[in-house]
């Protein structure tokens, strides 16, 4: 969350095309959206039951993996826009 507060203004300062700015900001907003959905899944799983269950663990792990994929996507987008 805090990093997005730095990266979004930074993306507007960088010398990129209009499409580049849109990609930079969009990739950060995508990470925030996926993180919010992951938090919702975790809260729902915790609300249903606090006991350990393999399906609850799997749901949380998949949500965390989605956040990781969105972060990798953002890193690739930023790398491509900044260096190509």
From TrEMBL:
Q: Principal localization?
A: membrane
User: Which CDD domains does the record associate with it?
Assistant: DAGK_IM
Family label:
Belongs to the bacterial diacylglycerol kinase family.
Name of the protein in question:
Diacylglycerol kinase
Keyword annotations of the record: ATP-binding, Cell inner membrane, Cell membrane, Kinase, Lipid biosynthesis, Lipid metabolism, Magnesium, Membrane, Metal-binding, Nucleotide-binding, Phospholipid biosynthesis, Phospholipid metabolism, Transferase, Transmembrane, Transmembrane helix
Gene Ontology MF term list: ATP binding; ATP-dependent diacylglycerol kinase activity; metal ion binding
Could you state one GO cellular component term attached to this entry? plasma membrane
One of the GO biological process terms:
phosphatidic acid biosynthetic process
Q: Which residues cross the membrane?
A: 28-50, 62-83
Q: Does the entry feature the keyword Hydrolase, yes or no?
A: no
Q: What InterPro entries does the record point to?
A: DAGK, DAGK_prok, DAGK_sf
Q: What is its EC number?
A: 2.7.1.107
Matching Gene3D superfamilies, A to Z? 1.10.287.3610
Q: Which cofactor does it need?
A: Mg(2+)
Compartment annotation? Cell inner membrane
Report the membrane topology from the UniProt record.
Answer: Multi-pass membrane protein
């Amino acid at each position: 969350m805090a990093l997005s507060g730095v990266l979004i203004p930074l993306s507007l300062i960088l010398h990129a095309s209009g499409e580049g700015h849109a990609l930079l900001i969009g990739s950060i907003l995508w990470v925030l959206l996926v993180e919010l959905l992951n938090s919702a899944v975790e809260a729902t799983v915790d609300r249903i039951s606090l006991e350990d269950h393999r399906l609850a663990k799997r749901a949380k792990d998949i949500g965390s993996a989605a956040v990781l994929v969105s972060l990798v996507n953002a890193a690739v987008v930023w790398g491509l826009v900044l260096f190509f």
